[in-house]
Amino acid sequence: MSQTSNPESLEGLAVPSEYFPIQRSASPTPLLSLNRFPQKQENKPSHTITHGENSVLSLACSDRYIFTGSQGPHIQIWNLITFQQEAVLKGHLGGVLCLTLSNDQKMLFSSSGDCTVRVWDVDTLKCLYVIQVCDVGDLFSVVYCDELDTVYIGCQNTSILRFDLSTKENHQTHNFPYSCNYSKFFDNIPPTTNACEIISSVEEEEIDAKICAEQENVCRYEVHDCMIYMNSHDGYVYSLLLGENKDGRILLSGSGDGDVKVWSITKNSMELLKVLKGTDAGILTLAIQDELLFCGAQGGDIKIYDLETYHHIRSLMAHDDDVLALAAGDNCLFSGSADGTIKRWNKTFEILNTYKDHTGIILSLTLSPNKSLLISGANDQLIKFWDINLTDDNCQEAIIPETSDIMLYALKKWILLRTVSGKPKYLEECFRGAKFLKNVFIQLGAESELIPIATGQNPLVFGKFNGISDFKQQHKQLNILVYGHYDVIDADKTKWFTNPFEMTGVTDNKGPMIAAICAVSELQQEKKLKANVSFLIEGEEENGSIGFDKTVEKFKNLIGEVDVILLSNSYWLDDVTPCLTYGLRGVILATIEISSEESDLHSGMQGGAVSQPLNDMIQVLAKLVSEDNYVLIPGFYNNVRPITSYEEQLYERILELNPSKSSETKEKLMSKWRYPSFTIHKIDVSGPKNVTIIPRKAEASVSMRIVPDQDIDDIVKSFKEFVKEIFSELRTKNNLRIEINNKADWWLGDPKNQYFKAAEQVIKQEWGVKPLYIREGGSIPAIKLLERNFNAVAIHLPMGQSTDQAHLNNERIRLKNLQAGKRIFKNLISKLSEIKKEK
């Protein structure tokens, strides 16, 4: 609650640059990862094969063989039992960029930089036929759909090719695709030159391959224009993958443009279904596991999408460099990167193991059919075999207890950032805190961006989880906005039992916000998020929410439609009984300054001869309130809303069920919560701090707490006029100045509306007791403003206990309350989603 105060590169990759033309950029999530497992170093590989002098670009594995493709045009075949080379498949004229097997393992498909896809018989190890196309550049990826008997090819020129093998005889050709990218070095070697001394092994293979290609007797089939889907992406099509979901058979394509496209495929067609929009980080590799799509990207991230809803549910900060290969096992995912490491992830996106034995960039990964071996290829010209037949129980030993819950792990990291608002020395750390929160949103599956306020002020963090669209719904999706803040007040470490920035903000308001974010993320991952849930988390709440109103108005279109506002920025009345807050007082912060045109004077020299600003100040302040704290400003109480019988009952229940308030009367609670007040906070004076000085200036900080239905502008006007009237009666020579430093309106919800009743039900379900309906004397400037701007209703759900020490030394929050708070948010959002909203 507000204290409200006065204001890439791919160097070292031994692959032609055209294969990976897009230079890596910085990760879009550059801060701390939410991965909760330590990156345990795994044992050495069980076996290693030297591939010659070429980088291992592609891998495929059958029950009997391992097939490897490289920069050279040949495909090498290795026995999976003995690891000895069995054969070499010759025919391509360029590097073998992708290998894939048919489901029955009878056919091997290889795509190359020579503009061809070759289809091989796995039993005879002979080429069955060649599919060729001109003027599309390198063929980066190839997949084969057994059911449709169709090959799909991803190309350098941004196109996707579709070739139906059942009709291949209609497209036979006797031409060679001479526009392909095999080396033409040999065409220009002078007759007197010893070619063997100057050509590389790759070039030797190209000569051999060219001879074999000219001598072989295989059918060639040409891809016609009608089979080419031009401009399928705005970048190279690096990866293709087949899958199935509610839309039937689908083809997924990943591109250097950062997008993943979902295509509906049938025997005779391919139609675009969905674009999974990405960032500038290109998508280099794809994998599917349990209806989840994993996308390896430039910069080191793995983006995760749910293929049923097409929602982005998570981003993993997986590696320090581009993710070039993915392989999906039964219960885990493997990722290989340009940083030289391979990582193993479990089904909840946690790192189980890190494999590091290659000395170069990991370019390819595959799994043996029985999933017992992981096979990796790199630009160190090595193929390595890793025994992955490990039980999850063994891996679970690596869990660190304090980080075994993602909510607690993220909260711990966030608290360490000293996001103190209103103090310039913390400005950079506040920005880091905002970036960390944005990173959390993205990794947990939300869209997120920072919203600037003004120079020298902390940005807002906006995050949005999109609900699942159900066309059978009879009403529109509810739009929920969760409001909170990430800034904290400063702490004096000499008065804390521990380092204050291991706990400051844990209850006010970082803990409740992390709990709410994790609650929505869980709903999304469980495919139960039926509402659109946005978060607006500010960094200036403890500093009076400076600039919040204008910024919200400016970015109203980004925030979108809002039906319900949720917040959790206050506390229970005790440590036992849960509460629902339905009212907050507003506040007006003001400074009264009385000053003399004289300088500071000595009381022994000038006392009694001059008008003294401090004396005047005391007389002015004394006439603003009576001895019994009644505010004397004219009309101050005129519009205070009378108490209703329903509200009387709420107070009576508080006193009945809350033992800690037994010493308080109903009238005292009302004085703190529902009646206005006037407070003198401090008086500052100029000059040296000794008792003989007549200060030339006195400055008083005062506040007025206002309630329904007082008008904040009318109160400000009456206050100024009354202070001026009192001052004019003093017949002093001093000067008066009144400044309104900040103001926030009161807020009052309706405990009887359907949203509060939904909150009451889920709180009772969690704690086993109906919550107390309470009001509070403090202020949160944003609530009324958000209600007014979006024509929405707000619900305030206190999460912490009365002893949480918010704004005080040794702040804390009970773990039980934090975990229960997450469940309450989760259940409330589900329940609110059931409330009908007219279309």
UniProtKB/TrEMBL annotation:
First and last residue of the signal peptide: none
InterPro entries: Cyt/Met_Dipeptidase (IPR051458), GSH_degradosome_Dug2 (IPR017149), Peptidase_M20 (IPR002933), Peptidase_M20_dimer (IPR011650), WD40_repeat_CS (IPR019775), WD40_rpt (IPR001680)
Lineage of producing organism: Eukaryota, Fungi, Fungi incertae sedis, Mucoromycota, Glomeromycotina
CDD domains: WD40
Domain Peptidase M20 dimerisation, first and last residues per copy: 583-727
Native source organism of the sequence: Rhizophagus irregularis
UniProt entry keywords in alphabetical sequence: Hydrolase, Metal-binding, Protease, WD repeat
GO molecular function, one term: peptidase activity
Disulfide bond recorded as keyword: no
Listed Pfam families: M20_dimer, Peptidase_M20, WD40
Family of this protein: Belongs to the peptidase M20A family.
Residues in WD repeats: 89-130, 230-273, 316-346, 355-389
Database matches in PANTHER family: BETA-ALA-HIS DIPEPTIDASE (PTHR43270), DI- AND TRIPEPTIDASE DUG2-RELATED (PTHR43270:SF8)
GO biological process, one term: proteolysis
Name of the protein in question: Peptidase M20 dimerisation domain-containing protein
